[in-house]
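[job 0412] stage=complex_fold ligand=MGD status=START
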Amino acid sequence: MTFINSACPHDCPSTCALEIEVLSPTHIGRVRGAKDNTYTDGVICSKVARYAERTHHPDRITTPLRRIGKKGSGKFAPISWDEALDEVAQKFLKIESDYGAESIWPYYYAGTMGLLMRDGINRLRHVKKYSGYHSTICVSLAWSGYLAGSGRMSGVDPREMQKSDVIVIWGTNAAVTQVNVMNHALKARRDHGAKIVVVDTYRNATAKQADLFIAVKPGTDGALACSIMHHLFKGNMADRAYLKKYTKDSDILEQHLTKHTPRWASQICGISEDEIIRLANLIGENKKTFLRLGYGFTRQRNGANSMHAVASIAAITGSWLYEGGGALLANSGIYHWDKTLIEGLDAIDPAVRLLDQSRIGEILTGVPSTLSGGPPVKALFIQNTNPMSVAPNLNLVRSGFEREDLFTCVHEQFMTETAEMADIILPATMFMEHDDFYQSGGHQHIHFGPKLITPPGECRSNHEVICDLAKRLNASHEGFNLSAREIIDQTLVKSGWNNLETLEKEKWFDVQPDFETSHFINGFGHADKLWHFRANWSEQQKVWGVEARKFQDAGLIQEMPALPDHWEVIEESNLSFPFRLVTAPARHFLNSSFTETTTSQKREKYPTLMINPLDAKSLDIGQDDWIMVSNERGSLELRANIFEGVNSGVVIAESIWPNSAFKAGLGINVLTGSDPSGPVGGAAFHDNHVQIRRA
Ligand SMILES: Nc1nc2c(c(=O)[nH]1)N[C@H]1C(S)=C(S)[C@@H](COP(=O)(O)OP(=O)(O)OC[C@H]3O[C@@H](n4cnc5c(=O)[nH]c(N)nc54)[C@H](O)[C@@H]3O)O[C@H]1N2
Ligand SMILES: Nc1nc2c(c(=O)[nH]1)N[C@H]1C(S)=C(S)[C@@H](COP(=O)(O)OP(=O)(O)OC[C@H]3O[C@@H](n4cnc5c(=O)[nH]c(N)nc54)[C@H](O)[C@@H]3O)O[C@H]1N2
Ligand code: SF4
Ligand SMILES: [Mo]
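[job 0412] stage=complex_fold status=DONE, emitting structure tokens
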């Protein structure tokens, strides 16, 4: 049997090097992790190991479809590609002439992380001056917090965990969401007794494997980090020489932290003083402490502050100086792409407005403050994302999609909730059905994923569709005339990463910068080369390009504390809404993907709410009982899962189940809020207060 090298395209920091068994020109067999890739190390998650089930799924969309019933009725009839593309182009041209180009909004995300198939849509939007896209659904809170301290989005080589004495997995359920982190951490424990610490809101699959588990109240990591830093200063565990040479404002920070004692934090975080001191001592006494920072703890209204505070711990101890020490959130800053061909960067008009991805509900329903002074959105062109399931404030999102005067085209692999709201649906290829290349967020490899089989039916890749549409829309750019392989090859060459032939031959490029750079020993990313303990949030608005772009949320930073602190902006519980809800990722789904596969559905069973036994008892709720969960934004019913691994007052719904899994026809995001968080916007998916009763 032939196994061919590829890469996992999914929105996951692991970006695994895959080997795919090709059974015939139309069929794949087994999928496994490449053993000779030093990060993947032969390990992949179980859902991708079963990928043939997704690729050869009977429910794949295989022809273009036109809506024939009411919006959202799910009634469609097959049409030809020419009919479909002509209709989309005519609608877009008409809307452009009636309302202006900004009334068309290309809306995409990371259903594929392929640099060409994901980002090529930007070439069309830039050339046509369609509305801009400010991406806030996933990383903006985490990255802005880290960047405020470090000035560059990169960190320590995750393979260095082999040298670490302590690995702190902070606010990421790595065993579920990026399995390779767990693989490297467990190896370090096996090989030389490294301690694994997990900081999370419930005893998830990762916490179950930890030597020390700290169960914080959601949204209080900033307080925990401050008290750790307080203890490090007080206990003489701060590296004064490091602080002097590599950081700015450490004196001000030390002074500021005098009141942030473990006792102060224990009240806020819901953990004991002893636990805080134990964790702080472990970090202070082991210079080779690796902070593996997750996204989870930043999906809170104070998430950027918390990230800045937690990441600052490594600068106090100076653990950056040691192999196996330091921190990693993401490595996107190590890649130096020239994406002009892919994204049409030479066609950017900075006067075009930016619309916030997470505020799609407000934007489609015409809330003026979200439109940045521009026209209403009259047409959507959607690739690689399923906002009718994954976007916050879902009741409002549905009202937006239901608008009769909104024209929606969705390019998809499956009949998702978003596709169901479309006027025209276009069938999309999967990753082994097209050529693409990938960078890795959680490590340092560039991969190529070749076209291995012919797609089912009439499926076309994102690149083909964008180029076909461009012709019909009179949009011209060099990138529209190149094949996928040509654009990949030329982009590699222009970016200084050799070329496609070499990438195919070498399987992947390992582009981890040297030790001095990865550990910021040459200096941090700011102009003064220092770690900043005092965050400059308005600088972040510049970095993210929102300041000058008619962006409505520029005022977000007014109240943000500059120094690490507990910022009291989270959606606290109160008498009416006594619980805090976290909507964490489920193991066998990946966002809304894999919800269509039978094996994933079987393993996840049905939507549940984890609730502490004492809370369940006081509400007279038994195991598997139906419970109604609600807040100001919406309500839904799930089944109770009574679990002592979640603290009293906190509930967890592992997500994202399809809307159809719920009696009322909309999923967990009816409970989450789309109000933007500072400094640059972002959805606080795990920051919700709710009330609960037996249904
Ligand atoms: N199986 C699976 N894998 C996935 C995904 C998936 O849906 N399923 N999603 C993919 C995507 S798009 C992404 S961005 C990554 C995300 O990967 P992660 O960073 O792991 O996921 P998050 O939702 O960001 O966070 C998960 C953890 O954060 C914890 N958490 C929530 N609030 C707090 C808090 O205030 N403090 C602390 N300390 N912890 C908190 C939750 O309890 C949960 O255990 O995973 C990717 N991989
Ligand atoms: N409650 C709650 N909501 C959340 C989160 C949470 O933790 N809790 N997490 C949030 C996060 S971090 C994220 S990133 C978002 C992600 O949410 P989505 O962007 O919806 O995520 P995916 O499921 O990764 O991908 C969406 C779609 O892309 C399609 N797709 C894949 N490849 C291709 C392709 O090549 N071409 C085309 N045209 N389509 C393709 C898939 O079929 C899939 O339906 O969800 C967010 N929503
Ligand atoms: S762990 Fe992540 S990158 Fe690796 S195969 Fe699974 S989804 Fe893909
Ligand atoms: Mo994400």
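The pocket of molybdenum atom (ligand 4) is lined by residues 11, 138 (CB under 6 Å).
[job 0412] exit 0
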